[in-house]
Design brief:
Largest sheet of chain B: 2 strands, antiparallel
Order of helices and strands of chain A: HHHHHHHHHEEHHHHHHEEEHEHHHHHHHH
Mean pLDDT of chain B: 92
Largest sheet of chain A: 2 strands, antiparallel
Number of helices of chain B: 3
Helix content of chain A: 55-70%
Strand order of the largest sheet of chain A: 1-2
Strand content of chain B: under 5%
Distance between the termini of chain B: 11 Å
Strand order of the largest sheet of chain B: 1-2
Oligomer: heterodimer
Order of helices and strands of chain B: HHEEH
Number of strands of chain B: 2
Mean pLDDT of chain A: 87
Structural class of chain B: mainly alpha
């Protein structure tokens, strides 16, 4: 079958599956809407958490990032998995025992304060919206590249799908849909990885293939790399030859990698849409085990990512270096061993703006090395060069040599622009895999983006309906309970979900120009606000509301200002506090939070006796009923 | 369940967590970041050891740690009779 029809078929089937599940798992009560009734099996919950957690960014971009930065990509891999260890030991079991629906529930009750609850709601909404904007954009991008509709239509289709299962199904619908989405995306990621591993190293398991010997000989442009060289040696050798730093050696220095890893780990453990997952298990034991299964599900993908990254980088050099463009894109090039090196994919992705070739030395051949082919992202003029390549109007990168001088010097000058996302999106085509694998990747990318978007939207709507309306605005001052009926609250939750989807869609269609940087925001704020407040709420009985509020505000304001100043107001890198990049500053915000909260709480009266009892209660598992509202 | 048992249980829980978090720290921040260059001098099966920890080993260890913790806590809860 033709590629395009296969893509429609795979994506269509997966959508039909999600919607049927959503209809089957409709939520009838607030409890089902917020925490799926609290009876989700740990393995299923682990899969749902995995899908919730792994976003379009993980699926589409992470392998590309690791592929281009090599060793230091470990910060993302460890940072986005290590947080689950903290969740399992420091947060999940106790929050499950606490037995309510949301993170602001815990903050509000433990710190006996509507102010603390409201601060928490603001954090949830802010963190989740920044995140969801990126997801909707991801949905749009996958749609536009694979289904050939424009990005905005893609976003609207995505909104409609999420609408069906988030608004109807609530947490119950989302959980079971996410299980299906996890299965789709994990196969979509690992199947091509296995093919690649077999192709590059003759090894079935990518995690092992990554450390195996390459199955072919190739010319990196400077030296011949022999068949049977270890893959990582071949990578180190060839990219050093081309002027990059070695793949397996740190380029940015331990300190910043350390801070970034810490901010990502602590941020993961503080993200409200992840934490709320552990409210859905039936028991405290289930919450611990569930964190374990979630990490298993995530690790299957996250340990495959660096392998794909390595294969892709080798393939890129092997397939592109010194290849004649015209022969290549018309499918007539050959590898050293005489097999075909079909480059028709290069044309496809050139049209999407993710790839461009600027024949700087005028030899008609592609060269790849360190450096920029031109300044910025490709702006195509619509005209074609002598080899049939799309010409760009970008200004030339700083280089004073003429084409003749470049050719005469014999030095390799980089001529290609490669968007990092291409590593996953175009990999199967680069490796010449069958069409159904490519169609599968399209369905997988959509599953990754939709599942995360749905989880975030639910966190937002729950915060509004349950925490803000139910527990702050409509709170009866005498009984301390919500004056909203369960039915009214459920209606409010659905309405809030609708509004959240509309805003998310708007952000997807008119994205703020800084979606990527904004992710650092979400993690930094989660690390500096929720993580310490929850930890101290459980492990430090003496912590009172004054300390908690002062701590949260300190962490928030510090992290917020630092990121705003250095990312959005153009602050100078030289002024970084101890040289810490904004992506890692959440770690410092967290430390300040702990210190301020500790000092303030010791200068103010201890929390009331019933709060100390509450802390005693959440520390022991016995007596954990299902999650409840009151 | 009396409050002495609850307190003893809590102490043992904290001790368990601390032990496991030391391992968590060593495999990720220790082997994968701080001592990555030193460990990279050692090589096995095509991997430099520090690089392997950063991109594979730390993640495997994380998974094991969570299940070990869950198992240990089950035993501790039985011991102090605070299980569900």
């Amino acid at each position: 079958m033709e590629l395009q029809s296969l893509i429609y078929l795979f994506v269509g089937l997966s959508f039909a599956l999600y919607i049927s599940i959503a209809i089957w798992a409709r939520a009838g009560s607030t409890k089902e809407f917020y925490v799926a009734g609290g009876g989700v099996h740990p393995i299923l919950n682990g899969m749902a958490t995995g899908a919730d957690w792994m976003s379009a960014a993980s699926f589409i971009s992470l392998a590309g990032i690791v592929s281009f930065i090599g060793n230091d990509g470990g910060a993302y891999l460890m940072g986005w998995t290590g947080g689950y260890v903290l969740l399992a030991m420091l947060l999940a079991p106790y929050l499950r025992k606490f037995g309510k629906f949301t993170v602001p529930d815990f903050i509000g009750d433990r710190y006996y304060s509507s102010v603390a609850r409201t601060v928490a709601v603001i954090c949830v909404v802010f963190i989740s919206f920044t995140y969801v904007a990126g997801q909707m954009r991801g949905v749009g991008i996958v749609f536009s590249r694979f289904l050939q509709v424009d990005i905005n239509t893609g976003v609207i289709i995505g909104m409609a799908i999420v609408f069906v299962y988030a608004v109807l199904g609530g947490m119950k619908g989302i959980t079971y849909t996410q299980v299906a989405q996890y299965v789709v995306m994990i196969f979509a990621f690992t199947v091509p990885a296995i093919f690649l591993s077999l192709q590059v190293t003759d090894t079935f398991v990518p995690q092992i293939g990554f450390g195996s010997k390459i199955a072919f000989q190739f010319d990196d442009g400077v030296k011949m790399i022999d068949q049977g060289t270890y893959l990582l040696h071949a990578l180190d050798q060839s990219i050093t030859d081309l002027g990059f730093g070695a793949y397996t050696v740190s380029a940015t220095g331990s300190f910043n990698v350390f801070m970034l890893t810490a901010a990502l780990m602590l941020g993961t453990a503080g993200l409200p849409h992840v934490i709320v997952r552990f409210f859905t298990t039936p028991t405290v034991k289930g919450a611990r085990i569930s964190a374990g299964w979630a990490l298993v599900c995530i690790a299957i993908m996250y340990t495959t990512i660096p392998a794909v990254a390595g294969f892709a980088r080798i393939n890129m050099i092997k397939n592109l270096q010194n290849v004649d463009y015209k022969e290549f894109v018309s499918g007539e090039s050959k590898h050293l061993d005489g097999t075909m090196n079909n480059g028709t994919w290069f044309k496809t992705w050139e049209s999407s703006g993710l790839l461009a070739w600027n024949d700087r030395n005028g030899d008609g051949k592609i060269q790849y090395a360190k450096g920029d082919a031109f300044v910025g992202k490709p702006k195509f003029t619509g005209e074609f060069g002598p080899s049939g390549q799309r010409l760009t109007s970008n200004p030339a990168s700083a280089h004073t040599q003429s084409a003749e001088e470049m050719r005469a010097s014999g030095k390799i000058v980089n001529e290609i622009y490669v968007d990092r996302d291409i590593i996953v999106l175009a990999n199967p085509e680069i490796a010449g895999l069958p069409n159904w694998v490519i169609a599968f990747i399209a369905a997988g990318g959509l599953a990754a983006a939709l599942s995360t978007a749905a989880g975030l939207l639910l966190a937002i709507s729950t915060s509004i309906s349950h925490d803000l309306l139910g527990n702050v605005i409509f709170k009866d001052p005498v009984t301390g309970r919500s004056t909203m009926s369960e039915k009214a609250e459920l209606r409010a939750a659905r309405l809030a979900a609708v509004v959240a989807i509309l805003i998310a869609g708007y952000l997807g269609i008119y994205p703020p120009g800084f979606v990527a940087q904004v992710v650092a925001f979400a993690f930094g704020l989660a690390a500096a606000s929720f993580f310490p407040a929850i930890i101290m709420g459980i492990f430090y009985k003496r912590m009172n509301k004054e300390g908690a509020i002062a701590g949260m505000l300190t962490g928030l304001i510090f992290t917020f200002s630092y990121i705003i100043y250095f990312v959005f107001l153009g602050g100078n890198k030289a002024d970084y506090l101890f040289g810490i990049a904004p992506t890692g500053i959440g770690t410092v915000g967290m430390i300040l939070h702990f210190i301020v909260a500790f000092i303030v709480s010791n200068m103010t009266p201890p929390p009331p006796a019933e709060i100390q009892d509450l802390v005693e209660r959440i520390r022991v598992p016995r007596g954990a009923g299902a999650a409840s509202a009151h | 369940m009396n409050s002495n048992a609850a307190e003893a249980y809590w102490k043992e829980n904290i001790a368990t967590i601390l032990k496991l978090l030391v391992i968590w720290f060593v495999v990720s921040y220790g082997c994968g970041i701080i001592f990555v260059d030193e460990l990279n001098a050692i090589e096995f099966a095509g991997f430099k050891l520090g690089f392997w920890f950063a991109q594979q080993g730390a993640m495997y260890t994380f998974v094991v740690l969570i299940f070990v913790y869950a198992k240990m806590m089950e035993r501790i809860e039985e011991k102090y009779d605070v299980h569900e």
